[in-house]
Design brief:
Layout lengths: L4 H13 L3 H8 L18 H18 L1 H17 L28 H25 L8 H16 L12 E3 L5 H10 L5 H5 L33 H18 L10 E6 L6 H5 L1 H6 L5 E7 L14 H11 L3 E5 L6 H6 L4 H6 L4 H9 L2 H7 L5 H6 L5 H5 L8 H13 L5 E6 L24 H10 L6 H4 L12 H12 L19 H5 L9 E2 L1 H14 L7 E5 L10 H6 L1 E2 L19 E2 L5 E2 L4 H12 L1 H4 L5 E7 L4 H13 L5 E5 L18 H4 L6 E4 L4 H17 L5 E5 L5 E2 L8 H6 L1 E5 L9 E6 L3 H16 L2 E7 L2 H17 L9 H5 L6 E5 L5 H4 L9 E4 L10 H7 L4 H14 L5 H10 L13
Parallel strand pairs: 1-2, 2-3, 3-5, 4-5, 7-10, 7-11, 8-9, 11-12, 12-14, 13-14, 17-18, 17-19, 19-20
Antiparallel strand pairs: 6-15, 16-18
Helix pairs in contact: 2-4, 3-4, 5-6, 5-7, 5-22, 6-7, 6-19, 9-26, 26-28, 32-37, 37-38
The chain binds thiamine diphosphate and magnesium ion (MG).
Length: about 900
């Protein structure tokens, strides 16, 4: 502690050049065993002998450094193994700081000034929440998360997070969602957010606008970049973001930089499977541009994260096992002199013995309690702290609250090469809240402080407010020329500007791409192709386009062959950060499995969540990097909305642009695969995402029209929308576009084939989508030929579009009663469409039914409600009652309802069409 600073600097260099901080430290902390793998002390262990071993190791460390010490330990381990000693596996290091005090770098800032600034931020963050809840009871907000993480953020803001500038892409920071009040409070001190805005925290509808509860780019597009509060999403998204940055560099689309991706997460959050689900990708890809900071306050919402265990050790072994560089920041500087006195390693051993529930108790108890229950386990430990009064024991800081320790960890993390780093920082939840919640189980929900608690907090952090003013909880910002504000501004200036800040930096595309898509308007001239094949043809062409080609990012979770995309392997290559280190087994074939460092396809393996995270990174690069990358993510449609809907929701919040393609779609169109695979749901699950446009096209030209228009809207006009298009694997001849129906395709429906029988009194309108449209066409023929019913067939490309338009129109009419009512598109389109109305879809019946109220008459709806089956298409369509016979029957039945035909005609039709009226109900069978 009293060491000369330049000395420390020199030692830091050793850390940076040393092979691994971890190894150095485990050595330094001696023989203390970690709690989880502790082995019983064997009889006959001689303390003196142990001491000699430790001393000789210390002397190696001193004379030859950590590399040599590591090598000796490795050899010892190997020697022990061959000598028949069964060393238990442990990925853990002792419960101690990874970076020892002697290797700590010089803290480059003004620590006292930074502490004062941090205190002001703490105050304003607390004030936001307390004030908001005084005005609007139960409006919510969190104090205790930021209170525990303040130092973790402030060290980042003052020394690490580099802003995005025209010269430098900047670091990318995922802020822990419920720490938002602290991020807003800092922006307030920076002069970026007004007191009025802070006043309206969680009151976004107030005049002048407020602040969103959590990071939502949709709501605060100039501020937040990444939505994080749905726990688990941001750790996974950040990994793929870091990998995507490398992808852009390896493909020469952006310059190689040392920009970092920082993800701040809660220790409780790591229980979400997504949080740790992709950590091996990060190490496999050697993402040393990625840093996780886990705020280990040992608490989640209800109570301790691992009351009976140690979350930090658990995470350490998971991350180390996965190949990450793990830096534990557990103990603050006050512990260093005590640790230094502990030559026997007893203290570190004791530190590793407590379970988290006990540690949490120590936080809320007195210094005397700490002495008795922590140090009291061994008289030698008691002796170590004998000179310290109880109050000093209570104030022994944890690592995550000590800027010097945090700085050391961050510096080691940004300088670490070859692996991602996770920093496990021990903190106290509700730090500084004292009786109001520090370390208590209720602290997560604490939003109200009484007068005494406010005064206590004010005094603890030295906020210049008197007793009376303080209980009003005013926001406090020192004068512009105060040293605090000057310092804070200077630090941000040195780091390139403010963070977080979101801006759209890409240049719009200019070409209209008419030529590219025209080919697909012409049909397949009788050749049978699926819509998936048609799409792959378009993708192939887009990849060759001079303007767009480079920007296309094809993403696939191990299904390229399913979708017939394998030809792209060879042409554009599969991205691999190391190229291809092996000769592929199929090298002699035309379409061999080509991996390349500049490969364009992101072949993610079997992870829809990971692929979606890549989609998000690519689809938001227009803001993050100023690059208009255009993601096309194709997957088994059942494993999209059904499986990863929350990522899609986050993508929408984030204003992600791009195309999601639900392949092998349709409950009855995907034959054989059965219940888990057959998707009759996704178009319904797509409904709630407000800025998502969903299409269920039947023909190649429909897809071409939708994609071309989507590219225009998203990448030329800069609209913040994204697309979902279902694709099928049923081959059939693609017809040419019947006239100029582009507008209808985009708006949701158009007449595909009118009846030629203009004279018939019996009329029907048949609505089909996707491959079920062909069933409607067959039904048209049956109705006309056998029953004299003249039916028109419509392709409904998007029920969602029809619905959205209709509810918008209805809303406008309701709000403008004195004006000429507007007419929904679907109503307008069907103004002169007489007869029975029948819709048939490969999705559940809700989809067409939701627009039926804007239809001219009641409509019969056929859909695929129920569990799928392993079967062929025709059998499935019969089972679900969506085939041409059922469509014809539905039309006849509707005509019967209108009194246009006799029931006997319908009864006979059932017989003639071979329909079993007593067949099982697909919904319940
Ligand atoms: C997917 C999801 N589930 C539940 C929640 C509700 N929630 C918000 S914060 C929280 C506890 C967080 O604990 P931790 O990650 O340890 O963060 P801390 O506040 O302790 O830093 C929970 C359960 C959420 N935001 N997201
Ligand atoms: Mg926590």
């Amino acid at each position: 502690m009293n060491r000369d600073q330049s000395d420390v600097m020199n030692e830091t260099t050793t850390v940076n050049n040393g092979i691994s901080v971890n190894n150095g430290i485990s050595v330094n902390n001696g023989a203390a065993a970690d709690n989880s793998t502790r082995i019983p002390v064997p009889h006959g262990l001689d303390d003196l002998e142990v001491q000699e071993w430790l001393e000789s190791l210390d002397s190696v460390l001193e004379s030859s450094g950590p590399e040599v010490a590591t090598e000796i330990l490795e050899r010892l381990r190997a020697h022990a193994t061959v000598s028949g000693i069964d060393l238990p596996f442990s990925a853990n290091t002792p419960y101690a700081n990874t970076i020892p005090a002697r290797l700590e770098p010089l803290f480059p800032g003004d620590q006292e000034l930074e502490r004062r600034i941090k205190s002001l931020i703490r105050w304003n963050a607390l004030a936001m929440v307390v004030r908001a809840n005084r005005v609007e009871h139960n409006i919510g907000g969190h104090i205790s998360t930021y209170a525990s993480a303040a130092t973790l953020y402030e060290v980042g803001f003052n020394h690490f997070f580099r802003a995005r500038t025209p010269e430098f892409e900047g670091d990318t920071v995922y802020f822990q969602g419920h720490a938002s009040p602290g991020i807003y409070a800092r922006a307030f001190l920076e002069g970026r957010l007004s007191a009025q805005k802070l006043e309206n925290f969680r009151r976004e509808l107030k005049p002048g606008g407020g602040l969103s509860s959590y990071p939502h780019p949709w709501l605060m597009p100039d501020f937040w970049e990444f939505p994080t509060v749905s726990m688990g999403l941001s750790p996974l998204m950040s990994i793929y973001q870091a990998r995507f940055n490398r992808y852009l560099e390896d493909r020469g689309i952006k310059p190689v930089t040392d920009a970092k991706v920082w993800a701040f997460l809660g220790d409780g959050e790591t229980d979400e499977p997504e949080s740790l689900g992709a950590i091996t990708l990060a190490s496999r890809e050697k993402l040393d541009n990625l840093i996780f900071v886990v705020n280990c306050n040992l608490q989640r919402l209800d109570g301790p994260v691992r009351g009976n265990g140690q979350i930090i050790q658990e995470l350490e072994s998971a991350f180390r096992g996965a190949g990450w560089n793990v830096i534990k920041v557990l103990w603050g500087s006050e512990w260093d002199p005590i640790l230094e006195r502990d030559t026997e390693g007893l203290l570190v051993k004791r530190m590793g013995e407590l379970v988290d529930g006990e540690y949490q108790k120590l936080v809320v108890e007195s210094g005397a309690y700490v002495r008795q229950h922590f140090f009291g386990s061994d008289p030698r430990l008691l002796q170590l702290v004998e000179p310290l009064p109880d109050e000093a024991l209570r104030r022994l800081r944890l690592g995550g609250h000590d800027p010097r320790k945090v700085y050391a960890a961050y510096k080691a993390a940004v300088e670490h090469k070859g692996r991602p780093t996770v920093i496990l920082a021990r903190t106290i939840k509700g730090y500084g809240l004292g009786e109001a919640g520090e370390g208590k189980n209720v602290t997560h929900q604490q939003k109200k402080l009484n007068e005494e608690e406010l005064q206590e907090f004010r005094s603890r952090f030295g906020i210049p407010l008197n007793d009376q003013d303080c209980i009003e909880v005013p926001f406090y910002r020192p004068a512009e020329d105060s040293i605090e504000i000057q310092y804070l501004r200077a630090r941000r200036e040195a780091l390139g500007g403010y963070v977080p800040k979101r801006s759209v930096r890409s240049q719009p595309l200019v070409a209209n791409h008419d030529e590219l898509f025209k080919e697909f308007h012409e049909g397949s001239e009788g050749r049978e192709v699926s819509t998936t094949m048609a799409y792959v043809g378009m993708l192939r062409k887009m990849l060759r386009d001079p303007e767009m080609g480079k920007l296309i990012v094809p993403i696939v979770p191990d299904e390229a062959r399913t979708f017939g995309m394998e030809s792209l392997f060879r042409t554009v290559g599969i991205y691999s950060s190391v190229g291809q280190r092996y000769e592929p087994v199929d090298v002699n074939t035309l379409l061999y499995y080509k991996e390349a460092k500049d490969g364009q396809i992101l072949e993610e393996g079997i992870t829809e969540a990971g692929s979606m995270a890549s989609f998000i990174a690519a689809g938001s690069a227009y803001a993050t990097h100023g690059i208009n990358t255009i993601p096309f993510f194709i997957y088994y449609s059942m494993f999209g909305f059904q499986r990863i809907a929350d990522f899609i929701w986050a993508a929408a919040d984030m204003r992600t642009r791009g195309f999601l393609l639900g392949g092998t779609a349709g409950r009855t169109t995907l034959s054989g695969e059965g219940l888990q695979h057959q998707d009759g749901n996704s178009h319904v699950l797509a409904l709630p995402v407000p800025n998502l446009r969903a299409y269920d096209p039947a023909f190649a030209y429909e897809i071409a029209v939708v994609i071309q228009d989507g590219i225009r809207r998203m990448y030329k006009d800069g609209e913040n929308i994204l697309y979902y298009i279902t694709l099928m694997n049923e081959p059939y001849a693609m017809p040419p576009m019947p006239g100029d129906v582009k507008d209808g395709i985009l708006r949701g429906m158009y007449k595909f084939r009118a009846s030629e029988n203009k004279k018939s009194k019996l009329r029907a309108q048949l609505f089909g989508s996707g491959s079920i449209l062909r069933e409607a066409l067959q039904a048209q023929d049956i109705l006309e030929q056998k029953y004299g019913v003249a039916a028109d067939v419509w392709s409904v490309t998007s029920y969602k579009a029809l619905y959205t338009d209709a509810v918008e129109t209805e809303r406008w009419n309701r709000l403008h009663p004195g004006e000429k009512p507007r007419v929904p598109y679907v109503t307008q389109t069907l103004a002169d469409a007489p007869g029975a109305l029948v819709a048939a879809t490969d999705y559940i019946k809700t989809l067409p039914s939701m627009v039926s109220k804007w239809m001219p008459r009641r409509m019969a709806t056929l859909g695929t409600d129920g569990f799928g089956r392993s079967e062929g298409r025709q059998s499935l369509r019969e089972f679900f009652e969506v085939d041409h016979r059922f469509i014809a029957l539905a039309a006849l039945h509707e005509l019967q309802q209108e009194g246009k035909i006799e029931p006997s005609v319908v009864t006979k039709a059932i017989k003639d069409l071979g329909i079993d009226p007593e067949k099982p109900n697909p919904v319940t069978s």
